From TrEMBL:
Species of provenance: Candidatus Methylopumilus universalis
Leader sequence segment: none
Protein name: Protein-arginine rhamnosyltransferase
Superkingdom of the organism of origin: Bacteria
Protein family (similarity comment): Belongs to the glycosyltransferase 104 family.
Functional description taken from the UniProt entry: Protein-arginine rhamnosyltransferase that catalyzes the transfer of a single rhamnose to elongation factor P (EF-P) on 'Lys-32', a modification required for EF-P-dependent rescue of polyproline stalled ribosomes.
Molecular functions (GO terms): translation elongation factor activity
InterPro entries: EarP
Catalytic activity: dTDP-beta-L-rhamnose + L-arginyl-[protein] = N(omega)-(alpha-L-rhamnosyl)-L-arginyl-[protein] + dTDP + H(+)
Keywords: Elongation factor, Glycosyltransferase, Protein biosynthesis, Transferase
């Protein structure tokens, strides 16, 4: 549990987010902002440079405003270039999501105000993360001390993002909720359901052709903007493809809970797939020289540490199959044969991670000690 906060502890903060690609950055930022506000009653100022993209996740956002309040969170439209003066004065705590470059004038203000500066880093299961978590670094230009805060899968990291009521919400999502949710998209609740959230580089048409060979009735849920890029055959006998509009966080969580298998990517949907407690296949953000595959193997090694060897091999092979666009028919037959065991294991691992403090809880706890 989080410790009682002192008068000098975290009461207000800046959460800085630069929207670089897709929706992962703002997705993570919005979840952190909401949890800081809802679970810990902290005054949150979200500083973001792209309101157009942000509005996909925050529909009530007015892109014409420089400053506005949504769900109790103050949102500032900012420019993070070196000569920018659009950032409001920093409070006692500044959280820089994914450690982006900030204007030197803003850093100097943090220095003069003695703001606690925390760089929130990307999620990884690589062993080195534990050694860098909570390590300080001195900014050469301003002399500002920055502390690195890493999410992660062990007690020696900051943990995973989750809301206080997440487990109870998942457990209250009963079969009737699931059936109603599936039918709201025109789906059949009696069919095996797969959600496909992937990077556009993925060869989905080839994957669907292999799925058709399984002769297993399957319905796929694909985001509309990805569906629009597909060249889908119209004569599938066993496959049913359903496109869905952009979903808010709660509805996306319900989609993951509703499906028998979830394909996810990046960081935010990856974490939510873990919390859904359903089998999933994760695609890391694709990097040059296949660096992302190192992250993938490190995660699978950690995730499968309490897994039977046969099941572990299935998960490793399926992720390799997906990451390399191989789509091996024999592997998928083996996957479906192990469906029940995979479901039990996914649920078990989610409960394992629930035992650790959440990322925001760890962050607030750390700030209240400084």
């Amino acid at each position: 549990m989080c410790r009682i906060m002192s008068n000098k502890s975290l009461k207000a903060c800046h959460l800085i987010c630069k929207v670089i690609d897709f929706f992962g950055d703002i997705g993570v930022a919005w979840r952190i902002a909401k949890q800081l506000k809802v679970d810990f009653n902290i005054e949150v100022h979200l500083l973001v440079d792209d309101l157009m993209t942000s509005r996909r996740l925050i529909p009530s956002l007015d892109i014409s405003l420089k400053k506005q309040t949504v769900d109790g969170i103050t949102i500032h439209h900012c420019d993070f270039s070196e000569d920018s003066k659009s950032l409001p004065p920093p409070p006692a705590f500044v959280f820089n999501l994914f450690n982006i470059d900030l204007p030197n004038a803003y850093k100097l203000l943090m220095q003069s105000e003695k703001s606690k500066y925390i760089a929130i880093e990307y999620l990884s299961a690589e062993p080195w993360v534990e050694n860098f978590h909570l390590k300080p670094s001195i900014d050469p230009e301003s002399g500002l001390i920055k502390t690195f805060f890493y999410p992660g899968f062990t007690g020696q990291t900051g943990g995973l993002i989750r809301e206080k009521d997440l487990l109870s919400r998942r457990e209250s999502f009963v079969q009737a909720n699931r059936d109603k949710f599936i039918m709201s998209f025109g789906g059949n609740p009696n069919l095996y359901s797969i959600s496909l959230f992937y990077y556009p580089i993925q060869k989905i048409e080839a994957f669907l052709d292999v799925m058709e060979l399984m002769k297993k009735p399957i319905q796929f849920f694909i985001p509309q903007y990805l569906f629009d890029l597909l060249k889908v055959k119209k004569n599938y006998q066993y496959l049913h493809i359903i496109s869905y509009p952009f979903l808010n966080h709660d509805d996306f969580d319900d989609l993951l809970r509703s499906c028998n298998l979830n394909f996810v990517r990046g960081e935010d949907s990856w974490i939510r797939a873990i919390w859904a407690g359903k089998p999933f296949i994760w695609q890391p953000y694709i990097q040059e020289n296949s660096i992302h595959l190192i992250k993938l193997k490190a995660f699978l090694k950690s995730y499968c540490e309490d897994c039977e060897q046969e099941l572990s091999e299935v998960l490793f092979k399926m992720h390799d199959d997906w990451s390399n666009n191989k789509f091996n028919e024999a592997l998928w037959l083996d996957f479906f044969k192990n469906q029940s065991s995979l479901e039990s294991f996914a649920l078990k691992r989610s409960h394992h991670y629930f035992k650790e403090p959440s990322f925001v809880e760890s962050l607030v706890d750390y700030c209240s000690e400084t």
